[in-house]
Design a protein that fits this description.
The complex is a heterodimer. Chain A is globular, with a radius of gyration of 24 Å. The N terminus of chain A is likely disordered. In chain A, strand 7 and strand 8 form a beta hairpin. Chain A is an alpha+beta fold. By secondary structure, chain B is an alpha/beta fold. Helices cover about 30% and strands about 25% of the residues of chain B. Chain B contains 7 helices and 12 strands. A 9-stranded mixed β-sheet of chain B has the order 9-8-7-10-6-1-4-5-12, with helices on both faces. In chain B, strands 2-3 form a two-stranded antiparallel ribbon. In chain B, strand 4, helix 2 and strand 5 form a beta-alpha-beta unit. In chain B, helix 2 packs across helix 5. Classes of the chains: A alpha+beta, B alpha/beta. At the A-B interface, strand 12, helix 12, strand 15 and helix 13 of A face helix 2, strand 11 and helix 5 of B.
Chain lengths: ~575, ~250
């Protein structure tokens, strides 16, 4: 597998007409294969620690492959903004595709015309935000963000960009954890956030039709008034948008009950790379007429088309919700509890999450206002079980019978049951707060893996052995779906630590025929890792489909598919 | 010493309240109900007093329809020793509840009666005070700190009042109503939930207590407060003055 590596160089101030040149970026030292020793020389010339550098890629430098410097400016615990270089993964980012054009003033005036003078953003501060991902791992250098308000505007923009060969990045809430929603170089950001209208809701069938820029939490509040709920729920709900959720086939906390988006999405309206609007916005539960194309777009992370409208089936809101926060001695008990929960709680089970002791400790120390529900002793594993049903008395009976038996058979060592909604919210805040706690704790190497439940924790323990005291290995996730969120938390990003993690983690997963990305997607972070979970032939077909729907490759380039495969076809 | 704690079953604090279409009241069918948060705090305080050795028994009491038993189960799961359920359908106003409690206290003879300062459904803030009046007991309301002396004869209560904190010394038996900052209620742990199943909930009726209640109050209509109007951007100071004078009539 060929790796593209970036050469060490200082970009010199050039006489380029685009002279709003900020400071120059230094790139990672060149290395062949997996050499991490060049870190030292790089460190040496990065003298000034408090220097916040912006990245600027000079596309005018002919023939020079320039990689992205993943700059990370973070606030240390003493509040001083320190600059740290991020080498968060062995992502070897390809060079900027030379066939892509760059923005010029004609383009800006065209966009201004299409968008009626509003929604063309070139302001530095706003671009800064849009260029940086939520994890603060990656930063692009786009000079333009567009905020269309209608599908027609999206279509005109894409048609134009396709003809000009301008690369674009569709962006929603920008909550991607794999760098999928930010530009790699200077791709034009198409932010769908202004398309946030709810178009219709059928109270009988529960079918909701809305635009792709609607924030998930807003949809949840709207449905709450109507007596329905969204079939997915995730920690990012306050910022993520439904278009993005669909483009990444988001999983979340309730997948175990309501299934994946492939099941709940009934229709999509998608704009293709050349501006063609595909109206597949059906509201039918059953429609077997030809190839069901919408599934191509669900999970394709904006690389095949931009989702503009969504039609989704929403389940009714059931009145009886119970939440239990339980403690187990070992991982084997957690698995047994899962089996017991599925059989004893059956149809009312709506969430099954787990955290290990490191995750729990991290959350309680990093976040304010949270208290340990089981303070009496330290437990190795915590399990969160939620039931949702139509009758309070029945559900409580079922839950209490299940819990009584679990305690008797020694599967549980302790637990609490939330007595009102406030207590339930505080339990959820503990589980949903782990990513935020990790962000506050420093640098995180984040892995989202699907593994056979019996083997899942073995990986965590092996990782702990490999890393020893060098890093904090934190594990939590959707145990009910066999989805492990493995996070290695350190004070700073460090090549040595990374070497111990990758490619070991991917190879381990591959050996178990697991998925290297259960729900987070591929994005930029794992674009070259597809082969760990997909056969070569499969990836070839993916590339062929990409070629059909986006021949110029302008949609979200450098992501999802490995560059090597794309450059072949 | 026995402590009696009054708990009320109310619409859960986190639920978005909706008014019934016929404006006769608030929608309560299919809505999550829980123990009143201030009652939880009262029960927590009683349990702490018992754990410190000052009390021998904590009894949770609720007055209302059959479903109150759920709330009492929660109380038992938190750690109360036994519960009393006074079955009484229909809407109950503070004075009726106070009369019921007077009869109960005469029968049970507790050394301390704890209540939440108010219920979050009616916000009356009257029951504790009325009970104290009927019993002719001292009262310490809006308690943010309760300290009992060695012999359980005197309670020192810090009250949260508008001007700050007021400290009172009450001779027991007394009525204390709890405010938010008194403590943080414990969660109901599994072992306690299991134990609660075998704890007794005694059912009483109004006849058993020899209490007659009639209400002098009748709810005529319940409506939502008027929706907040959006602000208006004015064009000049003159317009502002004109509006303040003629529309808002504040100058």
């Amino acid at each position: 597998m060929k790796y593209f590596t970036a050469a060490t160089r200082l970009l010199r101030h050039s006489s380029n007409r685009r002279s709003n040149l900020q400071l120059l970026s230094s790139i990672r030292p060149s290395s062949s294969g997996h050499s991490y020793t060049s870190l030292r020389s790089y460190e040496k010339f990065m003298q000034d620690d408090c220097f916040h550098r912006k990245i600027m890629v000079k596309n005018s430098l002919r023939g020079s492959g320039v990689g992205i410097l993943n700059c990370l400016a973070k606030f240390g615990s003493d509040g001083i903004r320190t600059h740290r270089r991020n080498l968060a993964s062995t992502t070897s980012i390809p060079e900027r595709n030379k066939s892509f054009a760059t923005i010029n003033s004609d383009d800006i005036s065209y966009f201004n015309k299409v968008l009626g003078g509003r929604g063309v953003v070139q302001d530095e501060e706003k671009l800064d935000d849009a260029n940086t991902d939520w994890m603060r791992k990656y930063k692009g250098s786009s000079k333009l963000m567009l905020q269309p308000r209608t599908t027609q505007e999206v279509s005109q923009i894409l048609d134009y960009c396709n003809s000009r060969c301008l690369a674009v990045v569709p962006q929603g809430g920008n909550t991607s954890l794999v760098g999928g929603s930010i530009p790699v170089y200077d791709e034009v950001i198409i932010n769908i956030g202004s398309m946030n209208n709810i178009l219709s809701f059928d109270k009988v069938s529960g079918i909701l039709v809305c635009e792709a820029g609607c924030i998930l939490e807003n949809l949840m509040s709207f449905l709450d008034n109507e007596g329905y709920i969204m079939p997915l729920d995730l920690g990012a709900k306050g910022s993520c948008q439904i278009g993005g959720n669909i483009s990444t086939n988001a999983g979340g906390l309730r997948l175990i009950r309501y299934g994946s988006l492939h099941g709940s999405v009934l229709g999509l309206e998608v704009v293709l790379a050349n501006g063609t609007v595909l109206d597949m916005l059906g509201t039918l539960r059953k429609d077997n007429t030809g190839y069901d194309l919408k599934h191509l777009f669900i999970g394709s992370e904006g690389s095949l088309g931009i989702v503009t409208k969504v039609s989704i089936l929403t389940p009714p809101k059931l009145p009886s919700v119970n939440l239990a926060f339980l403690a187990c001695e070992d991982y084997l008990s957690c698995q047994k509890i899962l089996v017991e929960a599925k059989t004893k709680l059956g149809e009312i089970l709506s969430a099954f999450e787990f955290l290990d002791i490191n995750a729990m400790d991290l959350v309680l120390t990093q976040l304010d206002g949270l208290r340990d529900p089981l303070p009496s002793s330290k437990h190795n594993f915590y399990v969160l079980i939620e039931t949702t049903g139509s009758m309070e008395s029945h559900d409580k009976e079922k839950l209490e019978a299940f819990l009584a038996q679990a305690i008797e058979s020694g599967l549980l060592t302790d637990g609490v049951v939330a007595q009102d909604i406030n207590q339930a919210s505080s339990f959820w805040r503990i589980r949903e707060g782990v990513p935020e706690a990790l962000l506050k704790a420093g640098a995180t190497y984040k892995y989202d893996l699907s593994l056979p439940p019996e083997k899942m924790y073995n990986l965590v323990e092996e990782m702990r052995q490999r890393l020893g005291t060098a890093a904090n290995v934190v594990a939590y996730g959707h145990l009910g779906d066999g989805n492990l969120h493995l996070n290695i938390s350190t004070k700073q990003y460090d090549d040595n630590i990374l070497a111990k993690i990758e490619p070991f983690v991917y190879e381990w997963t591959s050996k178990q025929r697991g998925s290297i990305s259960a729900e987070h997607g591929i994005g930029l972070m794992k674009a070259n890792k597809l082969h760990y979970s997909n056969s070569a032939e499969t990836v070839q077909v993916m590339a062929a489909i990409k070629k059909v729907l986006d021949p110029s490759g302008i949609l979200n380039p450098y992501k999802v598919l490995p560059n090597s495969v794309l450059s072949q076809s | 010493m026995k402590i009696l704690v009054a708990v009320k079953r109310v619409v859960d604090y986190a639920v978005k309240i909706r008014v019934k279409p016929d404006k006769s009241g608030v929608e309560t069918t299919n809505v999550k109900m829980s123990m009143n948060p201030f009652c939880e705090i009262a029960l927590e305080e009683a349990l702490r007093i018992k754990e410190s050795g000052r009390a021998s028994e904590v009894v949770a009491v609720s007055v209302g329809p059959a479903q109150c038993a759920d709330t009492l189960r929660t109380g038992l799961a938190m750690g109360a020793d036994r519960a009393i359920h006074v079955e009484c359908p229909g809407t109950l106003y503070p004075l009726s509840v106070a009369k019921i409690f007077k009869a109960l206290v005469d029968a049970e003879k507790p050394g301390l009666l704890l209540l939440g300062k108010q219920a979050i459904d009616d916000d009356c803030n009257q029951t504790g005070q009325m009970i104290a009046g009927l019993l002719k007991w001292p009262q310490g309301t809006f308690a943010s700190k309760v300290v009992l002396d060695e012999g359980n004869k005197v309670a020192t209560v810090d009250r949260e009042v508008d001007g700050g904190l007021e400290t009172l010394s009450l001779d027991l038996p007394a009525v204390i109503t709890t405010d938010l900052r008194l403590n943080q209620p414990r969660y109901a742990t599994l072992p306690n939930i299991m134990k609660a199943k075998s704890k007794v909930i005694k059912k009483l009726t109004l006849q058993d207590l020899n209490v007659e209640i009639r209400s002098d109050l009748e709810v005529v209509q319940v409506t939502e407060p008027p929706k907040r109007q959006a602000g208006v951007v004015l064009s000049s100071v003159d317009e502002l003055i004109d509006r303040l004078k003629n529309e808002a009539r504040v100058i």
